[in-house]
Structures are given as structure tokens and as C-alpha cells.
UniProtKB/TrEMBL annotation, chain A:
Similarity annotation: Belongs to the binding-protein-dependent transport system permease family. LivHM subfamily.
Protein name, as recorded: ABC transporter permease
Primary residence: membrane
Alphabetized UniProt keyword annotations: Amino-acid transport, Cell membrane, Membrane, Transmembrane, Transmembrane helix, Transport
Pfam family, one: BPD_transp_2
Regions crossing the membrane: 6-27, 34-51, 63-83, 95-116, 145-162, 190-212, 224-251, 258-279, 309-328, 387-406, 413-434, 457-477, 507-527, 547-575, 582-607
Repressor listed as a keyword: no
Subcellular location: Cell membrane
Topological category with respect to the lipid bilayer: Multi-pass membrane protein
TrEMBL record, chain B:
Domain of life assignment: Bacteria
Protein name: ABC transporter ATP-binding protein
PANTHER family per the UniProt record, alphabetical: ABC TRANSPORTER ATP-BINDING PROTEIN, HIGH-AFFINITY BRANCHED-CHAIN AMINO ACID TRANSPORT ATP-BINDING PROTEIN LIVF
UniProt family annotation: Belongs to the ABC transporter superfamily.
PROSITE patterns for this protein: ABC_TRANSPORTER_1, ABC_TRANSPORTER_2
Keywords, in A-Z order: Amino-acid transport, ATP-binding, Nucleotide-binding, Transport
CDD domains membership: ABC_TM1139_LivF_branched
Source organism of this protein record: Jiella sonneratiae
SUPFAM superfamilies: P-loop containing nucleoside triphosphate hydrolases (SSF52540)
Record lineage: Bacteria, Pseudomonadati, Pseudomonadota, Alphaproteobacteria, Hyphomicrobiales
GO MF annotation, one: ATP binding
Amino acid sequence: MALYVVQFLTGLANASSLFLAACGLSVIFGVTRIVNFAHGAFYMLGAYVAYSLTQRLEGGLGFWAGILVAAAVVALVGALLEMSLLRRIYRAPELFQLLATFGVTLMVEDLVHLIWGPQDLVGPRAPGLDGAVTVLGLPVPTYDLLLIVLGPLVLGALWLLMHRTRWGVLVRAATEDRDMVAALGVNQKWLFTGVFTLGIFLAAFGGALQIPRTAVTHQMDLSIIAEVFVVVVIGGLGSITGAFLAAVLIAELNAFGILVLPGISLVLMFLVMAVVLVIRPWGFLGKPIQTGVKTIGEATRPWRPWSPATSVLVAAAILLAALMPLLLGSYGLSVGAQILIAVVFAVSLQFQMSTGGLDSFGHAAYFGLGAYGAALAVEWSGLPMEAALLVGPLAGLAGALVFGWFCVRLSGVYFAMLTLAFAQITWSVAFQWVEVTGGDNGILGVWPSDWASSPAAFYWLTLAVAVVCVLVLRHLVFSPFGYRLRAVRDSTVRAEAIGISRQRTQYVAFAVSGTAAGLAGALFAFLKGSIFPDVLSIPTSIDALVMVLLGGVATVSGSVVGAIVYTMASIWLMSATDLSRLVLGAVIVFLVVAFPQGIVGSLAGLVAGPLERWRRPAGAARPVALPAEGRQ
Amino acid sequence: MSAASAKLEVAALNSFYGPVQILFDVGFSVGRGEVVALLGRNGAGKSTTFKSLMGLVDRREGAIRFEAEDIARLPTYEIARRGLGYVPEDRRVFAELTVEENLEVGRQPARGDAATWTPERLYALFPNLAEMRRRPGGQMSGGEQQMLTISRTLMGNPSLVLLDEPSEGLAPKIIEQMADAILAMKREGLSILLSEQNLHFARLISDRAYILEKGRIRFSGTVAELEANTAVRDQYLAV
Ligand SMILES: Nc1ncnc2c1ncn2[C@@H]1O[C@H](COP(=O)(O)OP(=O)(O)O)[C@@H](O)[C@H]1O
Ligand SMILES: [Mg+2]
């Protein structure tokens, strides 16, 4: 009994920091409609800055001053970020907003590395609160009790701020209807900056408060962001009280889950989220949100089948790729195989994004499941490569069927956050279930069969798989199924009116996409000969997104080009600099601000005009592309 | 109406939602202290005209002079601060906010050129609201919401109020109350531009009228002239 009480208290203490981070994200989303991926990075920064300050400041006053000043400093950085970056992208598609703030996260990671070094840091204990209080005969850290009180206090303070001040009333009004608030004479610019600053302050405060409890590490940002997403999705985006309830629920689940079985807490979190979302798709206290700009790139050109000239070009490109083993050495061929795998991965994501409108932030889950599926098939069942290459996509399919069942019930940012949360949960399972996955040590010795073991043979194998995979997905795009997908993407209401079920159609697309990603993952395991949890990590999901967006989301060929360019660039970047995340993050931010259509999309927009005119002499009417496409 | 004394003057206004043009060369004016009706059937472009004035459409071209100053390039909040008050047709009360809080969102500093409103004055104008100061906007009847949305706009002390279909969906008794309130606003010196689908309500309070059809102005004249002109009314207005 006593143990349960103590565990309950620990859960409450954990809930406080989680609540601080989550309610900041929620408030920011409510008003600006931006899901701030960088929220975890600011949480981490809060902890690092607080660490440095409390090293220098003495005594109880110094400690608390350090925590508060750290949160204020980080909030100021947040304000600068809002004014310099976010103001430019408030009207951009939400996917780009997520990407840009993820780019900021990458930059912060490397900056933290530069400033504070690679090692974990252990902060000071809170003066006067470093002891323990005995509860039912068991010790509970005094600091935990303070946190338990702090959570509701902050909730109360926020409630007063939102209900008893003009600023708070304006924030709540803007959460409901931004345009109307502007039409009543309120300058939203400063409202947005203020809200963002407040949200970042809360996140940094939450991070800073952790330093007496846990080490300050580089993983704080991504580990908290996944939990925060879960909390916010369960609590309802935009709701502070919802965030509090969900934070308590999740933290308690973790606290008790650990008692039952270490590692099960994640599965529990997953189950609870799933149940809540099925019953209340907008969370405890959330409301259906009108998601903003949905399609990416206004200049989405109509889809059309290849012309004979294009077919010849494609065949030539494939032939050229097939001749590579005559030109390249084994390193070059392994890079080539890696690029081809990236192509499959990117095209699988592009399939659900462009045709289905499903902007997944967790595509790594299916890639990783494919990789682990194949690797485990070899390690545990001793299956040969040929069989393992079937197990991989099946594992991807299974994951997509389970996760997709929940995800396709949602759309927009909810969909993106849920996919990310599922991927992160999969990552945690791979990381923690050491007996099966080897945890951080991964699975080694995943080698191809003899016939495919030479670099050239393996390269040809990946090439064959990639070509077949891209052609099959492309074929699906132009099949009746592809039309149904685009119909539900473009107008769900009208599509459902003619008897197309949005959920079922998107579910199938999600499954197809997951299967293809699993195949890419399986090949990847055999290419590397080993597999580690980072194939499931957030950066892997982002890699896929950037590849697709680089190429312009609208075309299959764009994704192929995007995958080639991005993979080569990142391999080069890794070898050229230690600060690859800083560079990559800056590039992502730049791309989002400069090319809201994706690179190939933007260039194609520039080129398409003159090209069309050149192809079609003036006056010669051309039939509209759509009917022709319909017969394909 | 000479240009010099006009409160609001719109000329050659073209407005777009995305690539679609909705308004074509729309021009009209509202004089000081005048009540002008913008009439037209559903889909004629009345709401789009109002949104264009407030800078709430995707793109607009043309001249919008308010107090002889071109406001066509100003952001929405600046337009509101110059004294243009907007009452949208779907009311858009903040459902989670109480009556008092809704009014607070609309509050702006007093202006020299227009009547100054306080919650107490508005409660006097709309006694129903006085009884529900703490009620969330989402739990009010349509008529009460309409009173609230007008009051909220008046809290900004505007000198010209845009009322988009103020009588839509209201019970006859409430409509009378609404007409009285609009006339009271007129007595305070406010200029008013209101839209309606037919003449029933508009004739009670308006001085002049314009008729909009498919995004173009088709008629302009006094209300008396319009009442006399059955052909125009039959062609362009709802019954
Ligand atoms: N947000 C919008 N996007 C695209 N078209 C719109 C939008 N709002 C209105 N329209 C179109 O503009 C035209 C005029 O609409 P509106 O101004 O609302 O007319 P009214 O207020 O006179 O009924 C209609 O054809 C309507 O379909
Ligand atoms: Mg209208």
C-alpha cells in the first residue's frame, strides 16, 4: 500500500514538468496554430542554462533565481525566434511549420553540444529541499513534494492570467477566432509574440526544474517532445486544463507501469492514447479544429502518365544506374545502394502524402520495423536473406495496420503528432527491450546471402527492388484506387457523398506505404549488416519528409530526385563537418522560408510556363489532361 | 453625395478568393450619419464586400477611402482602429467567453469623432444582455448573440458600422428591437452600412440603398425610389 502511495506521488511530481512543457505547446498552438516542434529543444535549453547559472549562484536564493532567470533567458530567445522566423511562416502549410521548428531543434542540439560539451551534466540539489520526507514509512524526496504543489499552482496562475487580465481574454478570444479579434482592432503580431514567449517560458521552466532530479542530457529534447505530443493530443490541443489532466494521467501510468513491468509503461501510454482518441478524437477538452492550409503548393500540377519521350528518359536513367558497377568501387556502390533505399523510403512516404494528404511525421516506424523484422528473422529464426526480405515488409505492414487504424481517424496536425508519437513509442521499445532487440547495442551480423554479398550484386538487387517498388507505387497513383485517394484528399465531403469512405481508403494507403517503407528498411539492414534503434528515431522520419519536400511533394519523380540529392548531400555533410545538424537545421529552415513549394516544385513552377508554351504552339488547343488521365 | 462629405467611398473594388473573382468594379459611398443598405440575394457578394473593406479577403484591388484616407492597404486591425466597426453575418461571438469578456475584446480607447460606449450604456441599449453578463457566448440564443456582436463592435467606438444581415434568422419581436437599436446608433451620429436580402427590414431604417448582383452594383438610389421600382426589386431581391 505504502509503495503505491509513494509511486503515486512520484507520478504527480513527474506530471508537473510534463504539464509545464505541454501546456506551453498547447497555448502556443491554440493561438498561432503552430505545433512547435522546437518546444523540446527549449525545454532542454532551460535545463542547460539553469545548470550553468546554478553553478555560479550560491544558496537557496541563488538556486531559485538561477531557475527563473534561465527560463526568462530562454523565453527571450523564443521571442526572438518568433519575430525572426515564425512570423514568416504563419500562413505556410502546417507541415512546413513543423519542419521549420524541427530545423530549429537540430540547430539547438549542435549549439548545446558546442557550448556545454558532449557529456551529461549533473546539476545541484535544491538547497534546503535535498532531503526526504517519510510517507507511510517510505522516503519521498522533499523536492518532489514541491513539484507536486507547483503543478496545480502554475495551472491556477495560468487560469487567473487567462481569465482575469485583458491579455488573457484576448488570447482566449484569438484561440477561438483570430480574424475576428483582428477585426476588433487587436494587433495580433504582439499577441502571438507574447503567447509564444509565455509558452517557451513554461517549457524552459519545466526543463530547469528537472536539474536536481535528473542529469541534463542531449536527449532531453526529443524524449520530452514525444511525451508532450501524447499529452497534448490526449488533453486536447489548446486546452491548458486538458494538458494538466493528461499530464497527470500519463505520468501516473508511467509510475505504475514501472511497478508492473519496466518497459510496459510505454505500451500502456500507447493503449491509453489509443482508447482516448477512439472515444474523443480531439482529446479530453479539445475541440475539432479547422486546420489551415492543407495542400502544399498551390501550383500542384495535374498528374499525367508518362509521354513516350519521358518513358525513354526513365529507361535510360535505369540503364545508367544499372551500369554503375562498371564505374564505381565498393564504397561508391554501397553509397549507391543507400541512395536507392532512400528512394524507396521517400517514394513510400510521398505516396501517402501527395495522394492521400497524410503528412506523416513518423514514417521511420515502418522503415525501422522492416529493418528489425528482417534482422530478427535472421538472428532468431535463422532465415535466409530472401525470406527476411519478405518478413521486413510484412513487419512494416503489420505496424502500419495497427498504428494506421488510429491515425487515419485524425487529420492535419493531430495526424502528424500521432504518427510521430507512434514512431517514438516503437523507438523506445527497440531501445528498451534489450533481450530481443539488443537495445542500444543493436543486432549485428545481418548479412546478405552469398549470391548477393558482393557490392555489385547487392547494388543490383536494391536497384531491382527500387525500380519495381517505384513503378508499382506510380501505377497505384494512376489506378482507380489512386483517384479515390485524391478524391478524399481534395474533398472528403464530396468523395463520401459518392460512396468513398475516407478512413478506409486512407487506411489502405497507409498500409501500402508502410509496407514499402518496411521493404526499404529490410534492405537497409542487409546493406549495413547491423541495425540500431536510431533507424526508428525522429530524425529518420524527418529525413524522409525532407527528401519528399525537396523534390516537391506533388510528383513521384520529384521524390526520387529529392532522395538522391538529399542522401548524397547528407553523406557529404557528415564527412565534411562535425556540425552537420547545425548545417542541416539551418538548411531546412532556409528551404521552408525560401521555397514554400519544395525545390523541384518551385523550379518546375518557374520552368513549366515557358516549357508548356514551347511544347504547344500558340493557338493549338490541347485537351485538358484530366479525362486522358482517367482512361489510363 | 459629394465626395468631400462622404464617410466611406469605395471605387472600382475587385475582390478575389484564391483565383476566383467575386466582386467586379464595385463602387458606393456612405455619408456622415447616413444609413445605407446594400441589398442582394444570397451569394450576391454582400459579405465579400464587407470583408473586403476589413481586409479579410485573399486579395482586393481598388480604392477604399475612409475619412478621405485610403485604407485599402492597411492591416485589418488598423482598419478597425480607424473607426470601422464590423459585425459579421455569422455573428462570430466568442463562444467560450462570457458576455462581459466578449465586450472586453472589443474595447478600444475613446475617439474624438465618435460616440463613446461603455458596457453600461450597451446594457441600457440591449437590456437582455444586462441579465446575462456572466453567460458564455455559446449559450445564448441567436437574437442575444446578435445583440452581443453589435455591442462588442460598438465597444471599439466606431464611427461607421458595417452590419452584415442583422435581421437574419431573428424572430419578429427581436427584429423590431434591432431596428430600434440601429436607429439609436444613428442618433448617436454613427454612419451605418448594412446588408440585407430584401427590403423588409432595410426600409425601416435606411436612407439609401444599393443593389448588388453577381458581384456588380445594379441599382443605386433612395429607399423611396427603390420601393417604387417593382421591376428592379423583382429582378434582384429575394421576396
Ligand atoms: N471563403 C470563400 N471562398 C470562396 N468563395 C467564396 C467564399 N465566400 C464566399 N464565396 C463565394 O462568393 C460569392 C459571394 O458570396 P457572399 O459575399 O457570401 O454573398 P452574400 O453575402 O451576398 O450572400 C458566392 O458565390 C460564394 O460562393
Ligand atoms: Mg452574406
